[in-house]
Each structure stands twice: as structure tokens, then as C-alpha cells.
Amino acid sequence: MRGGGNEHSTMLIHTTTETAVHERFKDPLLELKNRMLTGLTTKDPGLLDRLRTTWAKETARVPAADFGETTVPFEDLLVELPDVVEATTVVIDNYRSTDRLDYESGPVTAIAVGGNTLSRGLTLEGLVSSLFVRAVSAYDTLLQMGRWFGYRNHYADLPRIWMTDELMDWFSHLATVEAEMRLDINRYMNPGVTPRNFAVRLRTHPKMSITAKAKMTSAVRAVAAYGGQLVESRFFDVSDNGLSWLEANAAAARTLVCRAARDGSARTARNETALFTDVPHEHVLEFLTSYSFHERSSDGDSGRIAEYIRKRVRAGSLGRWSVGVIGNSQPRADTKRCDLGSGVEVRMVRRARLSYDEDSDFDGVADIKTLSGSRDEAIDLDIASSQPKRSELDARRREQRPNEGLLLMYPIDPWSEPTAKKGRVPLAAPTDDVVMGVALVFPRPEDKDSDVEYMSADLSKVLVEEEDLSILDQDDE
To answer: What is the separation of C-alpha 89 from the centre of its chain, rounded to a whole number of angstroms?
Structure first.
């Protein structure tokens, strides 16, 4: 009717994998076709009324104008229906059938019935109508079936799918899985993040499988939330337009220090640091509404972190926090100082950025790679080692502060000259005040951390490059 685009028009009926079931669909479909053709030819009033009502209902659900098209009046459609119905063929497509879909020999109007051969690789041209009879619970098969949602140029308002409520829920779940998977894949855009050290996570479903069990031998449960993790600033806006962003973050830090000093308990800490314990979580949440992680920080989403904290508070955890300020413990004549108010003044730390001279994607973006060290994470713990290992940190936090979070602030020198180590250039941030880095340490929860579980590839046997901590040495020279 509208012309243009693909001349083929296909309906799909996806059934079980048994070929005998496919064959049992053929005769009823042919009988339905003949009854429809007879009714159209004789202009049966009952049939025409049903068709007219269906057409009015369906065209109202998705306005043609949304796609720059005009709704076709039913009377114009009725003129074409007898020829379309007569040209429609019923094709059983499985490994036993000889009459297969053939789009190469001219326009095709067909109802295709099948199972596996249709779900793996075959493209249905001009697909406008689908009936999903088979309930498939495997992610990979459902992704293949997603190609059957249909699309045809100039007819984008008309494709329709009929499926069970359960299958609709499964496709909705899979859409969430795919969106989250794309976010994880985007993390590979960040330097140093590769499939060797970060495995894409897939959300699970109680009634669905990701793929066949034989293909899941290298899968392990993955972290679903922030429990037991360190989230820190790594990227900073050092573009000409970054001043307001940097100033807002510095202001957020000063406000938090003021509130922590007022409502928390000041604790003695090592030289050039400040520590407040028993800080109400509300102050951390307020800080997260003002402090912004750079958009490249895939883990650093202030809104998502705040929502996680609220959830854990409802579960009886993270109601109290330790808030620390980490300064440069090594005195140097050229080291700047940062006054955060409430008697907190420390020497600024230095964090030069990685050099990406030939990478235009990093124009105006500073990547410092590493902000914090293990001794910083131990600031609120009673621990003997000055450079504790991760296992010791986790054990001591479980023993001493199992339900408390730790938020560390790092006043960074805006210029931050690099050491002799190659591959670094000055931070060169467009501010005369301070660049504020932040690290949040979350205790590993004793109960379930999330209502959602994820699976990922097991990377435990993959050789991973050691974390580069050389940048932290700048504060010790």
C-alpha cells in the first residue's frame, strides 16, 4: 500500500523443536487461509466487521504519524486483501522440509512455521507478525529470537508479536541484561581495563539459563553491588571548561569536613591526615549529591552509590562512616597546602596524569590511574603493618568496623609535576585552589548484598598485570 522498501511480507510461528508438531500446523493454517479468502471474495459482513474493528484497534495503538507515515483507511486496504491472502503460502521450515523459504526468486508472502532452524541464523525478510508458541529460557536463544521483533521500511508502525506473559517478562529481563552488559563493555574504553582483568557480568534469572551448562564451566558468581569494593576518583576534567566542576567538588569536600567535624568524633591519625569517625551517613549522602565523579568513571556513579548506601542502611549497615583527609606526609618547600576548614589543613598530594599525546579521546581528561594506597584504607583500623595486604585489610575491617563505611578525600596539587618516571605529564588542572579526589571503601556485608545475582567468566587463573602504585611514590620524595 505504501510502496518502497522490502517487497517481502512474512509471518512467523515459532513452535517446539519437534518437526511433527510443525507439520500439524500446516493444515489448520491452510484451512484458515481458504476461509478468509472465501469470506473476502463473498464480502461476508461478519468477517469484514471483525477485520475493520481489528484494523482500527491496531492502527490506533501505534500512530503511523510517529514514523512519518499516513494511516491507511480500511476500505483502501480491503481492496488489496484478497490478492494478498491468495498469494500467502505456508512454509514449514525445519531440517526435514524440502519446501524452504526462498527470498531470491521474487516477492514472498508467507507464514513460516518452525523451531531451531528459524532460531539460529535465518533472517525472515519483511517480518511483520510473530507468534511465539515455544517458551525458550536460554539467553542466547532469546537473543537470536529478538531478531524476530520485526521491521520493514514504511511499515514500522505495523509489526506485531504475540507471546505468553512469561515470555514477555523474559524478554524484558533480557533487555535489562543487554543494557547492563553494554555498560560493562564500555569500561574497556578506559585505559588498563581489559578482558584479562575485568569480566563482563550477566544478570541471572531464577527461571532462565544464560546458555547450555556445558558452556558455563568457566563461569563464576560475580560481584553485584559495592560490598567489599574500593571506588575512587581516577579521571578529572582538566579542560578549559573544567573549572566549575573542580570548584564544585572542592566545595563539597569542605562542606563534608565541616559536618564531620561537627557531628563526628575527631581521631588521632598519622602526620598530615585528619580522621573523623561515627559520622552520620546522611552527611555522606549529601556529599554525594554535590560531588561528581568524571563521566569516564564507570564505577563512580554518585547516584548509584547513594542508592546502595540507602539500601544498606535499611538493612542495618553503613549508618555510620569514617571520613578521612589524606595529605602529603613528606615536607618539601614547593608543596602547597590546602585548608578545608574546621582546623583541617594538610599538604596537597601530587598525582601526575598519564600521557596520551596521540589519543584525542583524552583531550581535557586527566587519568591518574591510582589515587589511594593500602595504608590509606587502614586509617580507621587498628593494624600494625604500614603497608597491609588486601587480605589483612579485609580481615581487620570485618573484625573492627564490619558495618561502617570509609570515605577518604585527597587534596591534589592542581599542577602535580611528575617524577622521573616516563609516561607521566603534569596534571595541569585549570584551578588555583585544589583538585579533590575521593575514595570510598565499603565493608563486605555479612548478609546478601543485593537481590540480584550476576555471573561472569572466571579470571582467577588469568595472569593479571600488577597495579601501578608508582604514582603514590611522589608523596614520599
So the answer is: 43
